[in-house]
Amino acid sequence: MTTTGEIKQFKLPDVGEGLTEADIIRWAVKPGDTVEVNQTIVEVETAKAAVELPSPYAGVVSALHVAEGDTVPVGTAIISIEVPDERPAQSAPDQAGGAAEDLVPAPEQPDTRDTGEPPSNERQSVLVGYGPRAGGAVRRRRRLPPAEDTPSAHSAFTVPAGLTAPSADVPETRHRARAKPPVRKLAKTLGVDIDELQPTGPDGTVTRADVESAGRLPRPALAVAAEETRIPVKGVRKHTAAAMVSSAFTAPHVTEFHTVDVTATMELRDRVAARREFRDIKVSPLLFVAKAVILAAKRTPEINASWDDAASEIVLKHYVNLGIAAATDRGLVVPNIKNADGLTLRDLADAIATLSETARAGKTTPADMAGGTITITNVGVFGVDTGTPILNPGESGIVAFGAVRRMPWVVDEQIVPRWVTQLAVSFDHRIVDGQQGSQFLADVAAILHDPGLAIL
């Protein structure tokens, strides 16, 4: 007797650090599709980042248990995959004394009745928070009922509670556009039906420009005078909001400001950008602010520390994991450059460029954002002079870097045009005293005013 295979359920794993839920952004497969081990099957958004989940099984997709846009708790079964039964079918005994060559012995199978563990040569794919458990109970292999004259299980879609399944008599003809999650979110915000757009991107992909162009078209008159848009607070934005509220009401913030002449730094930037080793990378003022923050943090280690409330200890970090706040379509993320204090200026420039590109593409991982020690928020890119930044949770210092402007400045009793910017530093007053915070800010400003001080 032959069998159709075993149905395996893949449960949403914890893809971060103790995360409890995730949003389903995009399914990469549908019922009936054949998948291989480690093939991407779904993209989810956690409280920290967007993550592509690979399949732990090879087989045929039997059902999707959740829909795109759903928020799913960790441990919930999200997809079922029918795994082929690789064991050979057993033939009935030869009633008529058939020829000996017709009887083929089945290959020996390891005994798993006592331990419940798979054969040693069977591949086990384990994700973070998901996988085989040691000493687990024995699980019997389930058999599917014989195929009947009904629609194939491969084409069945398990409809989540609250959703209405389409009628079986009406074929589904609606085309689903190809687009990245940030583009889909923009379309939703602008009220644009992305599936009705004519794609102009590569391989028929709907681009941001396509959505923005459609969003500028005149809309039909609304039946009501008032119009409002409600955006669900999920994923990164939900996590950021909770973290900022917690930080603002847990750490006693103090913010100080400094206006500084950075003409010498801007001249140095031009000379560095002209050097051969920097010609293939953007050399921005942020690079020199980052270097100044790293150097100043070495002189005031409290600004690069954290508060351990459980142990009643201040933890001084002897390394600098420099966070760079980045605004993305999913909300604010703060990935950090690991061991930034050990990088050359060229390596630091590379790291900042990579960090920014990854954030804009929505590919920042939870690991990229874990372990930061101090942060820079570059509000100057928006033409803003300064602000009062809120500490990234677990850190004791954050620097706001304002726009660099050409302004009149007094030099040797003469008013001359100079490059000027404003700096702000917020610090945790439990860790950093006013004198230490002021010293740190003054050091950053002094280095930017006269970069030659960096060698002292």
How is this structure best summarized?
The protein is of the alpha+beta class. It is built from eight helices and 19 strands.
Could you explain how this protein is built, in words?
The protein is an alpha+beta fold and 456 residues long. It has three domains: 1-85 and 115-162, OB fold (Dihydrolipoamide Acetyltransferase, E2P), CATH 2.40.50.100; 181-215, E3-binding domain (Dihydrolipoamide Transferase, Irregular), CATH 4.10.320.10; 252-455, Chloramphenicol acetyltransferase-like domain (Chloramphenicol Acetyltransferase), CATH 3.30.559.10. It is built from eight helices and 19 strands. The chain has helices at 181-190, 208-215, 235-250, 263-273, 285-299, 345-360, 366-369, 434-449; strands spanning 6-11, 21-27, 34-35, 40-45, 50-54, 59-64, 71-73, 77-83, 253-261, 305-308, 313-316, 322-324, 326-328, 331-333, 336-337, 374-377, 397-401, 405-411, 414-428. Strands 9, 12, 15, 16, 17, 18 and 19 form a seven-stranded mixed beta sheet that branches. A four-stranded antiparallel beta sheet has the order 1-8-6-3, with no helix packed on it. Strand 10 and strand 11 (313-316) form a beta hairpin. Helix 1 (181-190) runs parallel beside helix 2 (208-215) and helix 5 (285-299) crosses helix 6. The longest helix has 16 residues, at 235-250. The N and C termini lie far apart (82 Å).
